[in-house]
Structures are given as structure tokens and as C-alpha cells.
Amino acid sequence: MKSKFLVSSSPHIGNYLTTKRIMIHVIIALCIPLVASTVIFGLYSLFIVFLAVVSAVFGEWLFNIATKKNSTIGDFSAVVTGMILGMNLPPSVPFYFPIVGGIFATMLVKMLFGGIGQNFANPAATARIFLTLSWTGQMTKFMAPLTYSNGISDFFAGFTKLYVTTATPLAEIKGTALTGMVDLDLLDLFLGRIGGSIGEVSAIAILLAALYLIVFKIIDWRIPLVYVLTIAILALIFYENGYRYILPSILSGGVLFAGVFMFTDYSTSPHTRLGVCIFAFGGGLITMLIRRFGGFNEGACFSILLMNLLVPFIDRAFKPKPFGYKRVKAEKSEAKNG
Amino acid sequence: MQLTFKHGIHPNDNKEFSKDFFFEIMPVGERVYIPLSQHIGKPALPVVQKDDYVKVGSLIGEAQGFISARIHSSISGKVSGIINRPNSNGVMTPHIVIENDFLYNEDFLSPLLDFEQNSIINRVKECGIVGLGGATFPTHVKLMPKNKIKALIINGCECEPYITTDYRLMLEKPSEIMEGIEFVRKALGVNLSYIGIEGNKKDAIYSLAQFSETEVHLFKQLKTKYPQGGEKQLIYSITKEIVPKGGLPSDIGYVVLNISTVYAIYEAVKLGKPCFSRYMTVSGSGIRRPANLFVRNGIPISEIVDYLGEEQGVVKVVLGGPMMGVSLHSYSPVTTKGSSSLLLLKEKEIREIEPTPCINCGRCASVCPMNLLPMMTDKLILKGNTSEANKYYPMSCIECGCCAYVCPARRPLVQSQRLAKKLVNKNKIIPA
User: Fold this and answer.
1) Do the Cβ atoms of B409 and A19 come closer than 8 Å?
2) Per-residue pLDDT at A136 exceeds 80
3) Considering the entire predicted model, what is its pTM?
């Protein structure tokens, strides 16, 4: 029978949030640290992120063309992947890094496993690790924040290669782990006047973005909270004079950025509230183990990837019982005993 | 402190369309088409023939078996036959057609004089009363529980958006409802009754409380949250007791009835009026004049729409609430005992139905009042893996629609739960 009206299963009303709107919210939130780092590192860092976005979208588009599937770039999730990848790169990397990384992230890590929601590993984290292992030297070389001593020309320092490199605070944290003599300016860490990856440096910008995402209910606040708390507790335990390492550990490196934008990736985090807490705790543990005892100064991305692998097990182990389940079980055992 | 349950959603309640309108009587046209199946259980057996004269309240369909309900005529006039017409699901079902003589001669039962347990239950059965909240489960079955009942719970939540019939009943017929509660208490032999009403309807609480004896009627203010009126959620909100999985409220000593049903019981006992009509909200931005109507059973939806006026651009017509109601294919289905509301919805009000891939955000799981993982059932059942899907407890799903409401990918999660239930039953898999 031809229907005059739209006929579909209940419910007939829905929330305003669609996949696309969620992605737009995340893009808006990502723009906050992006603006901060453009000021801190100059225009070239923005250019890097731009290239990462374009190539991530291109990778997804190309995959759809090659496999003769409908285009999926309209949901903007590739833009988010590209932005997160770009902001994970040091601000002075050669222009082909974000291009290789962006295509790698969407084509190989995301689309090959079935596209949005299907990938088991975080595309941006995997791409960053891929780039780090391919070009370790350049991926661990960080430019110093601009001082603007030469006026506006500093703003274009990335293009002209006229910048100073610096060690990141993570190097100092690692170096002083046994002596406990850490000496970092917390205000610099908070504002982002430190060396580091593009998106990671400005703690205040990331916290604002986190607030935005939590207010709009885009991310689960438990993930960043548990992750950061785990980092704090382990800093206290792992380092000599541990209390002096709590804030530096949280504010430097990728902890805040990963906690807010990467551990919260829907596809690669567990389903349930308890599950995500375990997930975030595990992430914090691995991050701190790598930072303190591993070969790299930073462990956030590795911890994401390792915890991603555990997500199916966490989901299975913490599968929720339906409302009313326990009582039945209790009665059954009573029946057995009786 | 407002009582509540875990999870759930906060949809825009949209009750302001119709909440301030007094009930009005929906005029009846030339003929009514009374379906023989207006309840859960076996359809009624027709007991009238062509050219029989029936009055308002005459028995026209006899219940078949225990879980079934009687059907009564809603007007007086001549039976012109039994025809097949599409019901709200679009399935052709038998309807008794009665030509209206516009005399409305009544054929009610005599009012009940002795308020004994058995006579009240019998009266409810005779009058064909079913759960008027929308589930349409025969009420006399609920009044004869196997277990000992601790308390009666009256569901005044009306948590579905748009609907305002129970709210209007509580404001306009409070003494009748309180008297109805007395009858149900006698029928069940219980002393205690809880009356649960959401916090956005405080005036309804005051309205009812005027007529209550406070020792036995405990008014409970509940948080405005969907699905607060779900049986299992309501019991948990009020008593913090949990109905076991796959069980009934009576298993833990509670019986839940909604306001409309209690009012129907009042009418049956006190006035001898069989259940041939109900109160119904007509709302949505597609209706020119939203209203709360007294509707007799068997009136085609098209007549109601003509009576209240249709706006341009109606894309979806829903019989029942927007969360659990049925979307109609046309205006030809008729009003039944379960039609709590009729909604004419425009494009801007409805949920998009084109699904996109699941992004695994977990929102469905975080709102599910039954604590299920709807995305897993959806994923597995669409792959055809029924036995795996069964491990995610589709049988516990109450089809409230919270999951699909929040799903950003607009996946038809309730539909896949229904499919899973069907396939689990069909393949005779033991429900997990």
C-alpha cells in the first residue's frame, strides 16, 4: 500500500545531535588550542594542521572512490582525524609529514577497517606513531615558542626555518626523575610557552576546549578526569620528590590533549561508564611507565594505541547486566541450595 | 526530593500545545468501525450480526480466553456488517460497522452496589477494561495476581511528550479517580497505594490530594524524565525494588495501573459504563487546534483531523506517544481503547530516519533504562547472528526508544531489538 505519510519504527522524535553535529562541535573545540598554538609557534603550525586535514579527507575520499563506495566525507569525521593528527605533530616538521600521516590515518587505519565507528585503533595516534618510528629524529625535535623579538617576521619563522629548537619539559622530567630536582615554570606550562607538539602545549586552551565538549555532552568527562588523576597519582609514586612532578607531568606533553581529544574517541573507547574508567586508568598507567622507564620521553600516544587493543576485552569483561538481572541470579542459587 | 530511576532521557515535553484545554466531546459521524482486537491477547469474537440493533455499551464482541477483553458498541444504531479495514499497523483486521442513529440510547450495566473483591474484578472484566496507557493489557488479569500484593501503584507520570490526557483527567476528575483507586484497592485487597506523578504536574498532585485519605495514599513526586512511567522504572523510582528480569510487577508484590484505567474502572463500577470510549490528546504542530477529546471507539482518524483542522506540511502521523506510538500510513485507522494520543508532526519535529554508520559513541547504552547495549544487538542482529545478539538481552528491552532518541547516527535501534526478539522466539533460542 502506498503510504501518504512517513511510516517508521518508534521513536518518532530525536535529539538534535547527529554525527555531523558532534564532529562540528569537536572541530570548534579543537580550534581553541589551534589558535593558541598558532600564536605560540607561528603560521607554519597552522599550515601543518591544514595539510593534515586536507590529506586525511583526501585519503578517505580516495578510499571511497577506489572501493566504489558512497562518499563518507560529509560527516566531517575525517576533518577531526586530520586536525588531531596535525596537532600531534611538532610545529617544525617538513610539510610532507602531515600529508603522509593524514592519508595513512584515514586510508589505512580508519577506512580499511570499515570506516567510522569500525576502526579499532585511534587513526591519529597510530599515524603519529607511524611517523615517529619512520622519522624519529625530526618527530622528536621541537621548536621553541616564538619570542616575537624580531616583530612580525617571527610569525613566519616556520616557513623560513629561522627558529630555535628546544628540549621539551618532558626531557627535564625524565632527566631529573631520580634526583627530584625538577625546575619548571608552571605558568609557562599552563599558558604553553614551552616546546612540544602543536596542539599539546597550551594547557589553558585545552582545558577550555574540554569544558566546551563537556558542556555540550560530546565527551564523557570521566575519561579525561580518570586519566589525569592516574597520571597525578603515578607521578607522586614514580618520581623522587613526587609532589613536585604532579603538575609538570599533567601540564607537559600530550596528557591533556590525549585525555580530552584522543582517549575520548568514540570508536576506540569502551561502551560503558565503568569500562571507560578502566580504559583511562590503563592509559595513564602506560603513559607514566613509558615516561619514567621507557625509551621515549612521551608515552601518551603509545598508551592510546595499547589501550585501544584492550577495548574489546574491557567491553567483554564489563558487559553490563540488564536491570533486574541480579535478583534472578540470587533466586536461582537459593533454589539450588533449597 | 524527587524520586527517579537510573538512566533515561529528558526530551522536550511539548505538553503546552494541549495542556490547558478542557476535554471536549468528539462528535461522531455516520458510522463507526469497531475493531475486534483492541487489546493484547486474543481478538474478541463478534456476538452481533448484520441488521442487529445495538445501543451505546451493548456487548458486540465476547472475550476469547483469559487474556482477552470484551468489546462494546460506542454508539446506538444498526450493525451493517463486519468488514476488513487496515488497523494502525496497516494490517487488515475485522471491524464491526455500526450505522449511527444519533439517538445514543444507553445499554449500561447497573451500578455496582456491593464493593466486594470479586464483584469489582468481575465488573472490570464485563466492561472490557484494558490498560489505557497504551499497552492495552486486559486489566482483570492484573487484578487477579498469583502473588500476594503489597501495594497498588498508580501511574500518573504520563512521561511521553505531547500527551496530556492523564493530566487533564487528574485536574478535571480528581474525586472520581480517587474513588476509582478505592475500588482497585478493594479488588486487590491491599491497603497501601502509591500515586506517582512527575514534578512538572504539581497541580495534578494538589488536585488529587484534596480527595485523599493521607494514611493510605502516598503521593510521590517523581523527576520529570522519560520513561518514568515505564512499569519497572516507576516501581524502582517509588519503592527502590527491582522487578526481576523477565518477571512481572506482581512477582515482587506490586500492581501498576495508569490514571485513565483507574478512571475507566470508576465509571464501570459506579456508572456501569463499559469501556467503549477514552480520553485522547490531539496535538503536534500539524494540527490547527490541539485538543483533549472524549472519543468513542471506532471513529476514523480522518474525522478527528477534519474536526480540528490540519496544517500544511504534515509528514508523520502518530497514534500514541511520540516515543512508543505507531506511525500511521493514512488517516483511515480508527480510534481504539489504546489510542492515548494522535499527533500530526511536521518535518522539524520528527527524527531523521536515514541511518548512518554507528560511531560507537555509547550514548544508547548510557540512556538505556534497562541497562542494555542496544548498539551491540543492532550490529549483531543485522549481521544475522541471532544467538550472539541474544547474549545482549534483547528480551529485556522495553522498547521505550531512549536509545534511538539519542543515537546521533539515527540508527533504528528499537526496530533491531524487536527484530532480535522475534528471531530469538522464532529460532527457539533460550533468552539470555
Assistant:
1) yes
2) yes
3) 0.91
